[in-house]
UniProtKB/TrEMBL annotation:
Domain HPt: 17-111
InterPro entries attached to this UniProt entry: HPT_dom_sf (IPR036641), Sig_transdc_His_kin_Hpt_dom (IPR008207)
Region forming the signal peptide: none
Record-linked PROSITE patterns: HPT
SUPFAM superfamilies xref list: Histidine-containing phosphotransfer domain, HPT domain (SSF47226)
Biological source species: Winogradskyella pacifica
Keyword Phosphoprotein: yes
Protein name: HPt (Histidine-containing phosphotransfer) domain-containing protein
Single GO term (MF): protein kinase activity
Single biological process term from Gene Ontology: phosphorelay signal transduction system
Keywords, in A-Z order: Phosphoprotein
Modified residues (Phosphohistidine): 56
Length: 113
């Protein structure tokens, strides 16, 4: 269980309520892939505002489930926020999207979602 994500902080927040843990996992599955898809489209389109908004929305959940790519996601977010047209964040985007895909697949399997 959980190679690509961690539940330490989720369980701490849930204070032993496994139904709450499962609800947070379900929320992860519902929200994070949608925001990741927004990034997948917005980065190549150089839609800075959309990149910033999607990355900013993802940060707390990526951090809570400890995917290990928070700093990379922040780089992508800042690229959008600061409209850094001279910088390329394609590699950072791939790293974030891969981590999200891996975590989503694992959470679905672990929680039967």
């Amino acid at each position: 269980m959980s190679q690509h994500y961690q539940l330490h902080r989720v369980r701490e927040m849930a204070e032993g309520d496994e139904d709450f843990v499962a609800a947070l996992a379900a929320a992860f599955i519902e929200e994070v892939p949608e925001d990741a898809e927004r990034l997948r489209i917005a980065v190549p389109a150089k839609d800075y505002k959309e990149v910033y908004q999607a990355a900013h929305k993802m940060k707390p959940t990526i951090d809570l489930f400890e995917l290990g790519v928070l700093d990379t996601l922040i780089e992508v977010q800042d690229w959008g926020k600061l409209e850094q047209s001279d910088k390329n964040v394609d590699q950072q985007l791939i790293e974030v999207l891969t981590a999200v895909d891996n975590a989503v697949n694992e959470i679905k399997a672990d929680f039967g979602l």
